[in-house]
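Can anyone check this?
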Amino acid sequence: MSLETRQPGSLSHADVENAYARWAPFYDLVFTATMRPGRKAGAAAINRLSGRILDVGVGTGLELPMFSRELRITGIDLSDPMLEVARKRVASLGLDNVEDLRVMDAMQLTFPDASFDGIVAPYVLTVVPDPHKTLDEMLRVVKPGGEIVLVNHIGAESGPVAAVEAWLGRRAASLGWRPEFPWSIVQTWLDAHPDAALVERRTLAPLGLFTLVRIKRAPDA
């Protein structure tokens, strides 16, 4: 079941593609240090699994070297300029467990049902126009008993941080992501999907800016 989600600020695919085409040449320089703890935590959670893994929003591939070489990785992203950086990374590091990197819309995955043993989505839900559709698609393509691992910023509910996020939220289209992102978006989706169980939620460094979420699809789904 897909739910309509109304977000503070708004994003379209064109906003995201344009923003990340601009970010691509220096994305790694700007975001590597800040987001590395979250990428490491997401990779560590995925490395407990086996089989085929889908990396949703792989971007420039910063987390690809963090995955176990025993896993078979497919990465998707809406931005081809970002994927070009990822392809060069795969080639230069000899990451032969990365089977495919392709342009794809996270809200309309072209994979068959139950294609992957696990899914990791680092910093994705604040980027896509409709987080609920994205979660629907991830749940569809993960196998029964498989896991979805999210790493995402969860917005503050009050105080000065919330005020800053609200100010940035009015500039979401130019930034390419949504700074305001309440936990209720994920919780509402979980409440509507009894075959998806929250198994872990914890804040991460630096300063609790990001949150790791593990969701398990019911084995008999």
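Reply from J.R.: I decoded it. The CA atoms of residues 59 and 103 lie 10 Å apart.
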